[in-house]
Design a protein that fits this description.
With 164 residues, the chain is an alpha+beta fold. The chain has a single domain, classed as Nuclear Transport Factor 2, Chain: A (Roll). Helix content is 40%, strand content 35%. It has 5 helices and 6 strands; from the N terminus they run αααβαβββββα. Strands 1, 2, 3, 4, 5 and 6 form a 6-stranded mixed β-sheet that branches. A hairpin with an 8-residue loop joins β4 and β5.
């Protein structure tokens, strides 16, 4: 009976070690910063148009700041904004102007957002500068990874978007 338990324990340990080996050593190569930031703009556009506040918040650093708002305040504003509009649309001018400085990056573009019917009261546009930072983290407390997060937005203000 003890031999059976020992064999099961050794088998379980081997399976765990093999799983760790494939997880740790078969990581995909990191995406170049410019490519990842372009990808984040596409993901942000899709999340905005889907009114997906959680997806938008996942892109932001904990110390995010925009137009005097922190991450939590922006979440509340977006929930209220999306509740009061239909069919949000976002466009940005490509190619993005992206500058990378080690673990920091800045992306600049012109952005246009609209909702409901297209008309002067339901569209806003202007320059946008987005600051990113590469952050270190661990998945499940074990596996290191890096990801880019939005730290600050400059240019188009929340009051401009609301038409205030």
């Amino acid at each position: 009976m003890t031999r059976t338990r020992a064999a099961i324990a050794v088998g379980a340990v081997l399976i765990i070690l093999l799983g760790l080996r494939f997880t740790l050593f078969n990581q995909p190569p990191p995406i170049p910063p410019q490519e990842r930031i372009q990808q984040m703009f596409r993901e942000g556009k899709a999340a905005f148009e889907a009114k997906d506040v959680d997806a938008l918040m996942a892109m932001l650093a904990d110390d995010f700041e925009w137009d005097g708002m922190d991450k939590q305040r922006l979440r509340l504003q977006l929930v209220q904004f999306f509740r009061n509009i239909n069919t949000p649309r976002a466009r940005y001018k490509e190619p993005l102007q992206i500058e990378v400085f080690g673990a920091k990056a800045i992306a600049r573009t012109e952005v246009s957002i609209s909702w409901d019917e297209i008309g002067p009261n339901a569209q806003r546009y202007g320059p946008l500068e987005v600051e990113f930072r590469k952050e270190q983290g661990r998945r499940w407390g074990l596996f290191p990874y890096e990801e880019w997060k939005v730290v600050r937005i400059n240019g188009l203000t929340w009051e401009t978007i609301l038409g205030l």
